[in-house]
Structure formats: C-alpha cells, structure tokens
Amino acid sequence: HVQLVESGGGSAQVGESLKVSCTARGYTNYCIGWFRQAAGKEREPVGVIDTDGSTELGDSVKGRFTISRDNDKGALYLQMNDLQRRDTAIYYCARGRGPYCYSRPTDYNLWGQGTQVTVS
C-alpha cells in the first residue's frame, strides 16, 4: 500500500529557508507534484518532478524553490529558499496517475496529509 508522508516545514522568518520531505514507496514510475493551499484559497501547484528527475516550478517560486528525489531512499524534497509571507500555506506532495506530469490537482490521485509552513 503506497503512502505519502510529508515532514519538515514549520516556521521561518522572511528570507530564511525550510525543507519539506515526502517519503513514499512504490512511486518511482510516477510523477510527483508539490502543491500548497493557503487559508481561504484554492490548492495551487508549486512544482513537479518526473520519473527522470526533471522538474518544473511554478512562476511564483521559480528561482527560490527546488525539487529533488532520492529513489534509493524513497524520498522527495522541496527546498524552499528566500521564503516570503505569501509562501505561508499547507504543503502537500502527491502522486500522479502516471509518469507524465500535469499541474492540476485532479491529475493526482494519492496525497500526503500535508505540512504547515508559516513565514512571518
């Protein structure tokens, strides 16, 4: 049974860095996406990483966030640098329906429980 479990996150000051991890098994043949949802807002894509390790980041985080995966450890990472208050949200990792990456939440059918990131 595949599960996604996020860890890390927490609180940071503006300009600081945080790293969120997502542990998973049985996901190596799937795209993995990172999403976030701020209070009162819709869930939005942060970025995706495909089976070859290629990544695509959203415009709002490009140049500040990076995504990586370590298949041997069954882990994926979202490194967040130069955090801003607008980055405050619950962050989720999610497994896509196949190896190809898309940006809509509906293209992902397995979700972690989420982890809070608060920037002040």
Tell me what you see in this structure.
The chain starts with a strand and ends with a strand. The chain is 0% helix and 49% strand. Strands 2, 4, 5, 6, 9, 10 and 11 form a 7-stranded mixed sheet that branches. A 4-stranded antiparallel sheet has the order 1-3-8-7, with no helix packed on it. The chain has no helices and 11 strands. Strand 5 (44-49) and strand 6 form a beta hairpin. By secondary structure, it is mostly beta strands. The relative contact order is 0.33. The chain is globular and about 35 Å long.
What separation lies between the terminal Cα atoms? Answer: 38 Å
Strand content: over 45%
Low-pLDDT windows of residues: none
Number of helical stretches of at least 4 residues: 0
Structural class: mainly beta
Instruction: Give Rg in angstroms.
Output: 13 Å
Count of distinct strands: 11
Mean pLDDT: 93
Instruction: Please trace the helix and strand order, writing H or E for each element.
Output: EEEEEEEEEEE
Biggest sheet layout:
7 strands, mixed
Helix fraction? under 10%
Question: What is the structure about, briefly put?
Answer:
This protein has 120 residues and is mostly beta strands. 0% of the residues lie in helices and 49% in strands.
Question: Which features does this protein show?
Answer:
single chain, about 120 residues, mainly beta, seven-stranded mixed sheet, four-stranded antiparallel sheet, about 0% helix, about 50% strand
List the helices and strands and how they pair.
Elements: E1 4-8, E2 10-12, E3 18-24, E4 32-37, E5 44-49, E6 55-57, E7 65-70, E8 75-80, E9 89-96, E10 108-111, E11 115-119
Parallel strand pairs: 2-11
Antiparallel strand pairs: 1-3, 3-8, 4-5, 4-9, 5-6, 7-8, 9-10, 9-11
